[in-house]
Amino acid sequence: MNSDHSTTSTSVDVPRLLKRCSAMIWRGFHHSQCMRKGTITAANGRAYCKQHDPQKAADREAQRRAQEKAQLELRSLLRIQAEELIHQIGAGTYRGGAEIVLSFAEVSALICMLDKDR
Fold first, then answer.
1. Rounded to an integer, what distance in angstroms lies between the CA atom of residue 117 and that of residue 111?
2. Which residue of 20, 39, 49, 116 lies most exposed, with the fewest beta carbons within 10 A?
3. pLDDT of 100 higher than 80
4. CB of 98 within 8 A of CB of 86?
């Protein structure tokens, strides 16, 4: 019997594994290694595909956070403007976004005020 049999029975294609992307991704019910070719070598020495490159992923995350911050600031500005308008006309309820809701009584009172000013 050959004593080399135990070492050769678990042959792994090492060059093929080194060329694969190192990212672990969620595939429905479990994590597995990304199947794409690792074309970019990161600072940690691992290979990554273009999608999972840590630098590009961090850049995309920073861009997403900046967009969310801009949207939050816009919503806040709209809320402040709506509340100022409600205060100026003395009627209405702010419902979110750019929506101010007036009841029938508030609309009637507002129309009467505008008619008096004419």
1. 10
2. 116
3. no
4. no
State residue 72 phi and psi, 5-degree precision.
-65, -45
SS3 45: coil
d(C-alpha 71, C-alpha 55), whole Å: 25
22 and 78 housed in the same domain: no
CA atoms of 103 and 56, how far apart (whole Å): 51
What is the pLDDT, as a whole number, of residue 12? 53
Same domain assignment for residues 45 and 63: no
Number of domains composing the chain: 2
CA dihedral 59, 38, 23, 30 (to 10 degrees): 130
pTM above 0.70, yes or no: no
